[in-house]
Write a structure and sequence with these properties.
This is MerR family transcriptional regulator. By secondary structure, the protein is mainly alpha-helical. It has two domains: 1-58, Multidrug-efflux Transporter Regulator, Chain: A, Domain 2; 79-127. The protein is 68% helix and 6% strand. The protein is built from six helices and three strands. It has helices at residues 5-12, 16-24, 43-57, 62-71, 79-122, 128-132, and strands at 2-3, 32-33, 39-42. Strands 1-3-2 form a three-stranded antiparallel sheet. The longest helix has 44 residues, at 79-122. It is elongated, with a radius of gyration of 24 Å.
Length: 133
Amino acid sequence: MSYSIAEAARRSGLSIDTLRYYERIKLVEPPARDAAGRRAYTDEDLGWLGFLTKLRLTGMPIKRMREYASLRHHGAASAGRRKAILVDQRKSVADRIAELQTCLAILDYKIDHYDQVERKVLGTGATMEGISA
């Protein structure tokens, strides 16, 4: 199965400009071309784009993504380094999650506090939002 650049963009959630940019900076290999010379993306290409999207969502810098992309062409010989990159990124994501969980706990605490304030002010279980509606 092959996909035009517009279809690859739609399926991957990336823009056409981003697909071209990723090709230009060597995050993706130039896709095959159809008889008319247009890019023809494969399911494998879309899988790789999906993985790159997840790496970006983790906050991985483009430079590190480029290193990873380059290493994958070396096959099993580069597995150790690729794993190390992913382990490092996983730690970064876990640290960020812990930080966000702390922020969530603070928000929950403050929301609870305001629930108590509302109950005291109103003298009932009603909320301020319910009264203003």
